[in-house]
Amino acid sequence: MSNFDPNAILRGAQLTVVGAFRALQNPGLFTKEHYRQAAIAVAAGVFIRIAIAIPIIGVKVLLWFLSLFMNFEAAQWDDKVVGGLDFIQNSVLQVPFFLMSLMRYITPTLDEMFMDSLQWVDKTYYQKHESDDPKKLRATYYPNLRMYATHGSTSSHKSPMDAGLMFLTRFGRRAGISLAIYALSHLPLVGRFVLPAASFYTLNNAAGPIPAAVIFGGGIFLPRRYLVVFLQSYFSSRSLMRELLEPYFSRIRFTKEQKQRWFRDREGLLFGFGVGFYVFLKIPLLGVLIYGIAEASTAYLITKITDPPPPPAYSEKFAESQARWTNKHEFLKLPLANLDVHNVETTPSEQNPVHAKELQGKTFT
Prior knowledge:
By secondary structure, this protein is mostly helical. It has helices at about 5-25, 30-65, 75-90, 95-100, 110-130, 140-145, 160-185, 190-205, 210-220, 225-245, 245-250, 255-265, 265-280, 285-305, 320, 330-335.
């Protein structure tokens, strides 16, 4: 089975809906602190829209000034300049998405939201299965994961500032490649093949040669704008998942090679999960709020595609054991109503957080 097969993508999209629904049921998301963060997020959304609009407004002012000395009545290039600049900002460079992702390195709110949601997922899981045999239920995720120290970069244990610089470097590199491909697509004769070739190269590695060839053939006849949106949606959804999973990878220490295998084995499901939220992130102003919901939903996702982590003292070989998704085929075949069927057995009855008076003060083994 391909890692990018339609069944995996569909299951990822389903987890987008189920995860968001579970996250919004958490009363902990509606505390005074989170309301304050929501207000800040809305304000950040307004700031992002203004920051994006400034260059376009500047060009419009310049064109208005030039119109005092030049006749633009019969010309259309001025409208094309404004429209092209807006398209490059939002679809080629993905400026709104970049600014939302950058917030992770400014405030720890998203990391806290992930952990709070993970605690809620554990609690609701045991409430749902309270009448079941405890030995057939999975172990909890939150109690052990909260004992791991965060360390910015997941491969070299760098500071959060260094991790933020790495994010800026990644985005800068991707933005440069996107601009180069977009510019080459305007070349005479060969330009029409640039974007289809880039689509083929991208999908050939993920989905195989046949789907890639179909996209290449169709891309030759499609307008350039549609191919740009397609490519950027694919890469942005991958980048979104990298950022949403950072609270997990900042605690569980994977090597670079292990992390690549982890993503590779789950790339179809992660694409389905990420592209669903990516579409909603493009909603003006509300996109920043939806980013927070996506982070909370990722906590639910983690419990479906990884095993519960052991205490840090016993975590030496845990990362290697997670690089391959062992129950992938079984999970993708499950009906949507039975997503909790495949679980890790655990013997201690104290594992149940519903029976604990205070989950945060309890250590689970």
